[in-house]
Amino acid sequence: MTVIAAILTSALASFVISSVWYSVLDRDRASDGRPSPLRIVAEFGRSALVAGAIVGLAKAMDIATIGPMLLLALVLWVAFPFVLLSGSVMWDKVPVATAARHGGDWLIKLLAVGTIVGLWL
């Protein structure tokens, strides 16, 4: 039950963090109106998938406190969102501001998931 609670709580936190992040930083998207229910469910599912993967890594690595979880979250951010987003800037001509906006969202979400998982496990 603890694992499921950690995943669901982390997914919900990620979902809320992204919603607030983009509503504050992405005014153009906010003017497009509210996302459809299908997109909301899909986004929550994506958040749950990431949270589940992090919980699985934490369990496999026997990490159960906040400090090591935050370090894992930071390493995961550098290894995945940062690398992918910086590559999109270098190779796909994505504007740096766009990549930074998405990268910041991922950093905050991963640190939140790390904190929650560190508290739950």
Automatic annotation (TrEMBL):
<keyword id="KW-1133">Transmembrane helix</keyword>
<feature type="transmembrane region" description="Helical">
    <location>
        <begin position="70"/>
        <end position="91"/>
    </location>
</feature>
<dbReference type="InterPro" id="IPR013879">
    <property type="entry name" value="DUF1761"/>
</dbReference>
<keyword id="KW-0472">Membrane</keyword>
<keyword id="KW-0812">Transmembrane</keyword>
<dbReference type="Pfam" id="PF08570">
    <property type="entry name" value="DUF1761"/>
</dbReference>
<protein>
    <submittedName>
        <fullName>DUF1761 domain-containing protein</fullName>
    </submittedName>
</protein>
